[in-house]
Amino acid sequence: MSLVNACILVLFVYIGLLMMIGLWTARKTRTAEDFMIGGRTIGPWVTALSFIAVYYSSVLIIGGGAFGYKYGMGTLWIGAINVLVGSTLCWIVLSAGGSGPSASGWGSARSAASSRSATTARRQASSPPRSSSSFSSSTM
């Protein structure tokens, strides 16, 4: 078997494996919440791995190429150190355990007051005011 045929075979096996995983997980997905956030069953290790994958992608592919183009290929070691230090810190923080709040829980707790006031402001802006004094006093 030639090298080209072996590469094509590996490619088709990989695509077939991805399709099998997709079909297997599609059967487990019942609601939009299951699809979007894994039914809230994703642990800290998977969260850390996915965050680091996104971090590598953004730093190396997007930022690294632009940095190398602008300053030269010899300066890409700066990005490599950034990735190593940044991903290590992210790994330590994100995989510390399930005892801390989740990202969505932290964000909702942090912005609970501002989201309530934004919702109130939207409702007031979409409904016509009964009088100018009631409208101005309710937004201050």
From TrEMBL:
PROSITE patterns for the chain: NA_SOLUT_SYMP_3 (PS50283)
Annotated Gene Ontology cellular component terms: plasma membrane
UniProtKB keywords: Cell membrane, Ion transport, Membrane, Sodium, Sodium transport, Symport, Transmembrane, Transmembrane helix, Transport
Protein name listed in UniProt: Sodium:solute symporter family protein
GO BP terms: sodium ion transport
UniProt-annotated stretches for the region Disordered: 99-140
Primary localisation category: membrane
InterPro entries according to UniProt: Na/Glc_symporter_sf, Na/solute_symporter, Sodium:Solute_Symporter
Membrane-spanning segments: 6-24, 45-69, 75-94
Keyword Transmembrane helix carried by entry: yes
Any matching Pfam family: SSF
Protein's membrane topology: Multi-pass membrane protein
Cellular compartment(s): Cell membrane
Domain of life: Bacteria
Reaction equation(s) it catalyzes: L-proline(in) + Na(+)(in) = L-proline(out) + Na(+)(out)
Residue stretches of biased makeup (Low complexity): 101-140
